[in-house]
Amino acid sequence: MATEKKEFKTEVQQLLDLVIHSLYSNKDIFLRELISNGSDAIDRLRFKALSDKELIKDDPEFRIKLHVDNEGKTLRIEDNGIGMTRDELEVNIGTIARSGTRQFMEELKKSKAADNPELIGQFGVGFYSAFMVADKVTLKTRSAGSDESWTWESSGDGSYELSDGDRDKRGTEITLHLNENSRDYIVEFRLRQIVKKYSDFVEYPILMDIIRDETPKDDEGKPKEGAEKQTTVTEETLNSMKAIWMRPKSEVKKEEYNEFYKHVSHDYTDPLRTIHYSAEGKIEFKALLYLPSKAPFDMFQQEGPKHGIHLYVKRIFIMDNCEALLPRYLRFAKGVVESNDLPLNVSREILQEDAIIKKIEKSVTTKILSELKSMMKKSGEDYLTFYREFGKVLKEGIEVDPTNKDKIKELLLFESSRTEPGKYVSLKEYTERMVLDQKEIYYITGTSRASVENSPHLEVFKKKEIEVLFMVEPVDEFILAGFGEYDEKKLKSIAQGDIDLGSEEEKKLADEQKKEASGKFKKLIKKVQDSLKDDVKEVRLSDRLTDSASCLVTDEGDMNPQMERIFAAMNQPMPETKRILELNPNHPVIETMNDLFTADKKDPKIADYSELLYDQALLTEGIAVKNPARFAQLISALMVQAK
Ligand code: ADP
What we know:
single chain, alpha+beta, Heat Shock Protein 90, Rossmann fold, 9-stranded mixed beta sheet, 6-stranded mixed beta sheet, 23 strands, elongated, binds adenosine-5'-diphosphate
């Protein structure tokens, strides 16, 4: 094949520009990234070779090797892993195959990545970090079992070249033509230091030829007198290769845990929590789990984040992102689980059904939930960091994990009518500060805090100083359906059905007043209802309004508009449910309408005002009115009358 010149996909070039121009704060990490890729490639080959020994027969010793060329100022990182076919090369290097990339790059641009290197961390620049230190990168690769090899080369300036390669053995080698500011990456001491710091635990030897000019030694190890210096080359292993999760907890330093986290998660930021434990007894396994401090950009995509829990069996890597080890609502956790009780030839399908895996999943779930509980109790700030990033994911557990539902409820936080924006209340705190006579936990759903905090539905609750939880995330609607009770108290929407507040005496008084008002406004209400019959299910007097004239309420058992919107967004539109329009008997507008109605039952203003009351109720919920032009006309007409 002649050399083919190809353009990078736009998002790759954008990423490269960011890497080259903005990510200079810690260049050393390029080596960690490339070594990690090499180690991943060996992992994958080792697993494949379990069922196809031929693949590694000619070269069974897995390794990663660093080669330095002092003259050419290059550093080469070579692995004898699985390598890449031409197709794989084109997909993996040169495009970014992950969905959501474009959108993510837009966000990065907006938020000025230079000021936010941690944003890039969420994405993981991996291979492209090579361009932080190199003017030109040459990658040669040969897929295990294939007799073709390929060369890829780029200066990171918009295009790359692809040609036939001359690599005569399986694996990948990446040659970095070091840029002027990065020449020290050929210095032995620097490389030793970086490998020790970032990649010590890599399971395969990271080798390097150490060259010394030394005087030959005599039998006693002393330099031979008069002998000329000779150049010796010894291949040394730079890393200890100790699997970090197999080591006793007391011997692992925090930095080591953190570096290992970055290796398994492809994240750049330190984790929020590290959970390291071994289970002994009927089923034995070791787990090293991490709770990240930042959500990866693909957290909420259908396929979920790319890097999850790695599964090892008898020291052999089986798969990364082993979904069967974690319930989906804990998919933010990362790390490693190693078990000796599983067979080596497991597949994803088998794992889903495997009894041992189910037990490990149960244990891991319990461990993570109890870590979260203790974090919430002992270090609230950390818990808030966690909750802001992953609370939405955790909430899904209410719906899908009945066994742990009660534990998850304890971990939930909500903003409320008594918290400032960005501050939260737990259900425990809520119930502890409930007012006398309050029997239920009140909430309001909506699309944002702003859309609910001034809602007319809240009026009577504010007046009586009863706290109302703001449920403003789409997932809230789903968890509410199966939430059940908390501390024997039901959750009750303040925008649905009747509400029942206050002491027996207060209620008696309110009932009497309502009876009186009902008599007075009976005919007017009938009239309003007739004129709005296409839009509302019923018109009635309200217990919940103190200042506003009207509001809309969902009938008990009906679907609310937020839920309808969610279904519509999922392309499953539901027939629109009509709601109940409630009117405030103490509002002067109702009084005025009643006067007009008493004077002339056919006064057309009644129908117009009814429409306006309905439109107002929609607007206060942030819902668009059906006919904005007509709404504007009615308002203008009123303004003219006011002269
Ligand atoms: P990530 O490692 O986060 O997936 P990278 O940009 O570092 O992202 O690499 C992209 C892909 O290229 C990898 O997922 C892998 O499939 C492939 N790749 C990178 N380096 C190697 C290597 N040394 N051997 C085989 N495949 C590799």
